[in-house]
Amino acid sequence: MTDKIVLLILLFLLQVTYDASAKTIGKEFIGADVLKKYSFHVVRERGITDIVLPTPIGLNGWGLKQNLLKYTGYDLSPYAGKKVKIAGYDLAEKWKDTEAVTLWIVSANKEVIGAFLCVTKPGLIPGVFAVDDRDIK
Prior knowledge:
Blueprint: H1 2-20, H2 32-37, E1 42-52, H3 62-71, E2 83-95, E3 99-108, E4 111-119, E5 128-130
Antiparallel strand pairs: 1-2, 2-3, 3-4, 4-5
């Protein structure tokens, strides 16, 4: 139960942070390859910010994300305790044709090291999905 509360608080804080710091690296989206691979359509850029991943990686709501990332071929373990960039993009695609989703891209040295989706509005628990989730259309 406390993990879910921490996750919701983290997602809220991330949303506030990104709304306040919209920018791109150079003139290119971080994660353009992910957008292309999954045919996602960006409707709004939330911005890019630096974060330090927890040590161990399973803390502060990152355990669920790490499990989803491993499922899709990513692993944040080598970056535990290190500073990375995270970028958010609201997508035109929906979860089960009803819930708006945001694509989160985690990168280090301009290389994508993780990508996951979250429902945009709080309420759906856990609200975090793999980028290849079949219900995202």
